Every structure is written in structure tokens, then in C-alpha cells.
Amino acid sequence: MLARAGCRAGPGLGLLQHSQQLKRSAWLAPAPHCLNSSLPVNIGVLFVPQQEAWVVERMGKFHRILEPGLNFLIPLLDRIRYVQSLKEIVINIPEQSAVTLDNVTLQIDGVLYLRVMDPYKASYGVEDPEYAVTQLAQTTMRSELGKLSLDRVFRERESLNANIVDAINQASDCWGIRCLRYEIKDIHVPPRVKESMQMQVEAERRKRATVLESEGTRESAINVAEGQKQAQILASEAEKAKQINKAAGEASAMLVKARAKAEAIQLLAAALAQRHGNAAASLSVAEQYVSVFSKLAKDSNTVLLPTNTGDVTNMVAQPRSVQFPLSSPMALSFLPGPGHLHYADKAASCEDPG
Q1: Which residues sit opposite 48 in a β-bridge?
Q2: For site-directed labelling of 255, which of 8, 159, 179, 342 has its Cα 20 to 30 A away?
Q3: Alpha-carbon distance 60 to 41, whole Å?
């Protein structure tokens, strides 16, 4: 710890006591700190521990600072006035009340880490360095908390610590002391404010849950709409492809049928052009004529009969009497098939004298 300024060796020693101390062994270890015991007594030969600085005065005036190790002093003239520790020192900052920017009273405490950088300034710059730094840390803490609202105090805890360290270093530079870091240990909030903060947290969480649920519903609706859109697009494309394939199939079928019909007509025309082809065609027409009349009698109540129904021989000979050139289109209309009998019937009726 820091040596308190003004710490003395106790009551003045007489000449007898000094002479008795001079007779002691030179290896007598001095007391380390003035707060725990009296200051080391000058016996001429002194051993300074590591990480300590002893401030020596000669006839009441600063003389020098003893380094760690073996040192020699003049008894009665030189006196060890201060003992400063060069180690890092930890100081607890007592709990204190502070008011935030939004008028909330907090109880806050902390821990201060500092080190003596200049033993001369630490001895003669301030009366009690430890007390001075503690009071400075408390006042700086209250000042910094007054600039922040309650919510920002918890969010900006690190920046608050850094601001307190900067403020302490600016004031303690002339004391030869440097503040290394400051940490806030506990922040106590009034019970009613704590309840309000808890309610606020619960409301914020409910709000987040509602927002997340609504976003999930929206995303779900968007996904469903996108799926329906893609389904309709795919269905329309499939229907389009189906129609195209169907049209292509029908066109191909029509072409195949047309080619087959053309080949059939060519074959029939070639057959009719042969010997006795005309007679064969007349026989085919007569057979279809009779077949159609018999079918009309079965499927319909109305029957169309020629005038000479009693003469079966004439009825059979009538369609055979129809003659067309084999090269004309009308001759091809008498080819076998249900669609060609109608033209044959009309032709027969035209030549019927009745």
C-alpha cells in the first residue's frame, strides 16, 4: 500500500537510544511500510527490498531515493522520511449513491488499480495519496453517471470505466500516481425501478415474439403464393405442350391418312383401268345400294323407295346402269365406303325415268 505522508518514526529518540541502535547488527531488516509499523531507522547500512522506494531527507530537506539493495546513509543527518511501494495497488472504492441522467438513484461501488510512478511526487505532491485517489474516483464516478441514462449505464459499462480512468489520470499526474484500470463491481437499482425494468424486458420479449410470429406468417403466405404461381405456370406450360403435341399428332395423322388415301385411290384407279374393271365397279356400287336401303329400313321409320319397287331386277340393274368415265372424279366417288353411296344414289335417281 501507499505510505501515508507524515508518518513518523514515533517519539523522538535520545542520544542514548541512537547509540544503542548503532551497536545493533548491520543486517537488521527494516520495517517495510509505515502503515503497519514505524519507518526504518537509519543505522548507516540499510537494505531496501525490491519494488520499494525509500525517500531520504538530509537535515529536513529531500536528499535522494534509495534503490533496492544495499545503501549507506549518515546516521543522525539522513532520515528515511517516506516508504513507497512500486507494486500495483488495489483499492476498494466504497459503495456510494449516484443519480443518472433520468433521475434514477443507483448504489454503485468499484475497484481501482493504480501504481506509484514517481516516488518523489507521491511523497511531496499530496498529503495522503490513497485517500486522494479514492475521493477522486468517487466524485468522477458520480459525474460520469450523471451524463448517462439508466439503460446506457448497463450498456456502456466499459466506456464508463475508461472515462473514469482518464479523469483520474489527468488529476493524479502531478501526484506521481497512474491509474491502470477501474472496474465497477456492483450496481444496485431501487426495487421499484427493478420491477419496472423487469416489466419492460417482458414486454420487449413479447413484442419480439409477436413480430417474429407475424414475420413467419408473412413468409408462409409468400411461400404459398409463390408455390401456387409456380404450379399454375407449370400447369399452363404442360397444357401448352399437350396442345402442341396433340396438334402435331393430328397433323401427322392427317398427313398419313391423306397419303394412304392417295395411294388407295391410285391403286383403285389402276385396278379399274384393267380389263373388266368397269364391271367390278358396277357390281360394288350395286351391292352398296342394296345394303343402304336395307339399313334405312332397320334404323329409320322413313324409307325412300323407287317407283318400281316391285321389279327387283330393275332395282338391281339401275345402279349398274350408271356409267362414268374412269378418269373422271365422279367415277372415283363410287368406290366402296359409306360416304360415296350418296353420290351414286343421286346419280341413279337422275337417270331414273320415273
Answers
A1: 69
A2: 342
A3: 15
> What is the Cα 133 distance to its own chain's centre?
47
Burial of 160 (0-12, 13-18, 19+ CB in 10 A): buried
Task: Report the C-alpha gap between 150 and 200 in whole angstroms.
Answer: 13
Backbone angles phi, psi at 179, to 5 degrees: -85, 120
Query: Within a 10 A sphere around the Cβ of 197, how many other Cβ atoms?
Result: 15
Element (H, E) at 336: none
**If residue 337 lies in a helix (H) or strand (E), which one and from where to where?**
none
Which parts of the chain register pLDDT below 50? 1-37, 322-354
Q: Which 8-state DSSP code applies to residue 13?
A: P
Pair 322, 347: CB distance under 8 Å:
yes
- Three cell numbers at 28? 537488521
Distance, in Å, from the CA atom of 352 to the CA atom of 308, rounded to the nearest integer, reads 10
**Confidence (pLDDT) at 292:** 73
- Residue closest to 200 by CA, chosen among 150, 262, 254: 150
Q: Which residues contact 148 (CB under 8 A, 6 or more apart)?
A: 100, 101, 156, 160
Q: What angle do CA 97, 101, 104 make, to 5 degrees?
A: 45
Q: Cβ(163)–Cβ(137) under 8 Å?
A: no
Beta bridge pairs of residue 168: none
Tell me the Cα Rg of the chain. 63
pTM beyond 0.85: the answer is no
Q: How far apart are CA 177 and CA 169, in angstroms?
A: 8
Length of the chain: 354
